[in-house]
């Protein structure tokens, strides 16, 4: 991946069954990471994994707000897992078919 001088931040998210792991890379070096644990009481209010989206987004945004970076610096966001149907590993640009899935 070619780095752009003003866009060198990569956000990596690994949503698990009871936690969300997130790391922030700047210029190829990890500068912050956190495991955000979610209690069963928090998760039991949701009837499906997809219903947790806003809850998990909020805790991730709170982590990012604590870091010293600007959204304009973000080059890429990478995620592991999620709600897509199984696909081969690799790099994908998000498209309408993925959003519909």
From TrEMBL:
PROSITE patterns: ACETATE_KINASE_1. GO terms for molecular function: ATP binding; butyrate kinase activity. This is butyrate kinase. Belongs to the acetokinase family. It comes from the Bacteria. Its EC number is 2.7.2.7. Keywords: ATP-binding, Kinase, Nucleotide-binding, Transferase. InterPro entries: Aliphatic_acid_kinase_CS, ATPase_NBD. It is an enzyme of class 2 (transferase).
């Amino acid at each position: 991946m070619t780095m752009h001088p003003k866009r060198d931040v990569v956000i990596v998210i690994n949503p698990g069954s009871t936690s969300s792991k997130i790391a922030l890379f700047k210029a190829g070096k990890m500068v912050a990471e956190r495991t955000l644990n979610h209690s069963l009481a928090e998760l039991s209010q949701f009837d499906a994994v997809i219903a947790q989206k806003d809850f998990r987004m909020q805790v991730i945004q709170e982590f990012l707000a604590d870091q010293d970076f600007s959204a304009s610096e973000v080059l890429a966001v990478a995620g592991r897992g999620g709600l897509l149907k199984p696909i081969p590993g690799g790099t994908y640009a998000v498209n309408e078919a993925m959003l519909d899935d």
